[in-house]
Design a protein that fits this description.
Distance between the termini of chain A: 18 Å
Shape of chain A: globular
Strand content of chain A: under 5%
Oligomer: heterodimer
CATH architecture of the largest domain in chain B: Orthogonal Bundle
Helix content of chain A: over 70%
CATH class of the largest domain in chain B: Mainly Alpha
Radius of gyration of chain A: 25 Å
Shape of chain B: globular
Number of helices of chain A: 17
Largest sheet of chain A: none
Chain lengths: 322, 303
């Protein structure tokens, strides 16, 4: 249901509704001037905080000097791009970003679907609601608190995780200092936090399944598992595709906040991603031009992936963002 | 489905299947619940047990010493106050601007609405990047101001689209046309017809924004240097993640015993801090759950 309306909205956005615009528009602008006033605060915000920074993108092809300003600084062509692509850290950071991101997607994408299918198949409403309420909760925990929880739970000395490991005869692991553990901690804490919230949309899509469908399948002798496979999953497939596209659009956007907070001197080789590197080069080392170039590089890759995945999905399944 | 349930007795494999379903759900429930529960329990427990990593099922050696330390820490109060200011003002600003913009964009007779929409949506997928953003803020002299902390994050294109979808499906064009024939103007229509119908969407947007402001830390980290303007999350980071806890840096004039005691409390204090910083949201949440879910649903239509 959600997706159908979405298509309609998207079509409307592309202007597929028969338009009666043209020369009437001036008159209509005057008639609806109040509506433009309504738009003004949001438009100002977007102009200042989203579009004005785009002017600064030229810095990635210039050598910025504070005295000359953005416009006056001399052009240097692709110098910063070459510097980044040839830098010994490039491969590492690029791989870290992709690895963490793909791992998150692969581990995190199916979980909400599984949870939703499980929730949908039980009939004890109270228990269902309780599980939903509890699993949604971690979504509201801040990144700082989440990373704080990771650091106390996994502490080698006082964390209860290591107590459990010891109880089963293992030896305590210093999770936070172990470079190999970084991505697992990052990804699975994300799964812990996001699974419940992510399931909402699938639970809703599943309530759209008509009971008659299940009834007739039952008369035909289909058991529950078969019904999930042949009725429930096809129902949520379009939703899955849309969310997969949206998520792939963020492949290169490993969120800054959590990675940054989880970094320490021991895991930096596996924990440096493009966004944190941009921050360090730009704001800590004050290499404005270089940092802008890295940011732009990241942005462009994201954009290309999004367009690519969207085009593929449009061809394969008919679901797309535009 | 329940009707069908009565008609056909569930077969053996269905019963096994349901057993597995309940088992898996309960496992998932416990995995999510226990860490949350543990934080609460540990914050009330004797430091000795907490420091040695006991697997707690209930508070051991009940004590509120940790909380006394937390509430005695001036940083918590400053942070709390600032965060409340930023959250309340930012949320009000954000709700107002998103509702107005979302409504305007939901109107099919708004000339240029597809172009404006396109300009807005583009920013969801493309941005100038960190440094250009930083330079804009700097050139506006907004660094280190409370105003910036209130403004940043108030407008989100995602929220505007959510509002727009809401209005497109709740305010019929006929209603507006009828009102206009009766001589009602845009402003009056918005304030006396549209707003009274939009409590649900306002709640959704307000909650999303409030959670966002409450949990935000990145902008404060890069733009705020004045400690009296730090939001709670920045202080939380100090307490939870860097060694800069008041407890761990003993000040002069404390005897060795007090210092040892304070050091013992560090972990308990961390749990206490997590509880008091997260409690407002977690407590509000069950009552407001339906709005949050509604928001996800309207957002889903938008994609």
């Amino acid at each position: 249901m959600a997706v159908n309306q979405k298509q309609i909205r998207l079509n409307a956005m592309q202007g597929k509704t028969p338009g009666i615009r043209q020369h009437k528009s001036l008159k209509s602008i005057r008639k609806n001037y109040v509506l433009y006033l309504f738009l003004l605060p949001a438009a100002l915000y977007i102009a200042i905080f989203a579009y004005a920074p785009m002017y600064g993108i030229q810095l990635s092809f210039k050598s910025f000097s504070p005295g000359l300003g953005i416009w006056g600084s001399p052009w240097v062509g692709l110098k910063w791009w070459r510097t980044f692509l040839n830098s010994p850290r490039f491969g590492q950071i690029f791989m870290n970003t992709i690895t963490i991101s793909l791992y998150s997607l692969v581990a995190g994408f199916p979980m909400p679907i599984i949870l939703a299918l499980l929730l949908n198949s039980i009939s004890a409403m109270k228990y269902k609601r309780f599980v939903q309420t509890v699993t949604y909760m971690p979504h509201f925990i801040s990144v700082v608190v989440l990373v704080g929880m990771i650091s106390v739970f996994f502490s080698p000395r006082s964390g209860f995780i290591n107590t459990i490991i010891s109880a089963f005869g293992g030896s305590p692991i210093y999770f936070l200092g172990e470079p190999g553990m970084f991505k697992h901690l990052y990804v699975w804490s994300g799964v812990w936090q996001g699974t419940g919230w992510g399931s909402i949309i699938y639970v809703a899509a599943l309530t759209g399944v008509s009971p008659e469908l299940h009834e007739s399948a039952m008369i035909d002798g289909a058991n529950k598992l078969k019904r999930i496979w042949h009725i429930d999953i096809p129902t949520i497939l379009p939703t899955m595709v849309i969310l997969l596209i949206l998520n792939s659009g963020h492949i290169m956007n490993v969120g800054f906040e959590k990675v940054f907070l989880m970094q320490n001197s021991l895991n930096l080789n596996v924990a440096e991603v493009i966004s944190t590197y941009t921050y360090k080069i730009g704001l800590i080392q004050a290499e404005y031009s270089y940092s802008t170039a890295i940011g732009l590089f990241n942005n462009i890759i994201n954009f290309v992936i999004l367009i690519g995945v969207n085009a593929i999905s449009k061809k394969l399944s008919g679901s797309s963002l535009w | 489905m329940r009707v069908a349930h009565h008609r056909i007795n569930s077969s053996l494999d269905d019963r096994i299947f349901m057993g597995v379903v309940y088992f898996l759900l309960t496992i998932m429930l416990l995995i999510v619940l226990y860490p949350l529960y543990f934080v609460l329990v540990a914050s009330f427990s004797d430091p000795t047990y907490v420091n040695s990593g006991y697997f707690l099922l209930y508070p051991k050696g009940f004590t509120t010493l940790g909380y006394e330390r937390v509430f005695g820490d001036a940083r918590i109060w400053t942070g709390y106050l600032n965060t409340i200011i930023y959250t309340v003002c930012g949320t009000l600003l954000g709700v107002a601007s998103c509702i107005m913009a979302g409504y305007a964009l939901s109107r099919k007779d708004l000339a240029g609405r597809n172009i404006i929409m396109g300009i807005f949506v583009f920013t969801m997928y493309f941005s100038g990047g960190l440094i250009p953003f930083y330079m804009v803020i700097k050139s506006l002299n907004l660094t280190n101001t409370r105003l910036l902390m209130v403004i940043l994050g108030s407008v989100s294109v995602y929220n505007i689209i959510t509002v727009r979808s809401f209005f497109s499906s709740t305010i019929p064009t006929e209603l507006q046309e009828a009102a206009f024939i009766d001589g009602c103007g845009n402003a009056r229509f918005f304030f006396s017809v549209v707003l009274p119908l939009s409590h649900a969407i306002m709640a959704v947007i307000a909650l999303y924004l409030a959670v966002g402001y409450w949990n935000a830390y990145f902008n404060a980290m890069i733009f705020i240097t004045d400690r009296t303007k730090f939001p709670l999350q920045i202080y939380l980071r100090e307490i939870l993640l860097t060694a800069k806890t008041a407890e761990a840096t003993p000040s002069a004039g404390q005897d060795a015993e007090t210092i040892a005691m304070l050091e013992k409390l560090v972990e308990v204090v961390k749990y206490g801090v997590i509880v008091i910083s997260t409690l407002p949201i977690i407590c509000m949440y069950p009552f407001l759950q339906k709005y949050f879910i509604k928001g996800v649903m309207i957002g889903a239509i938008k994609g």
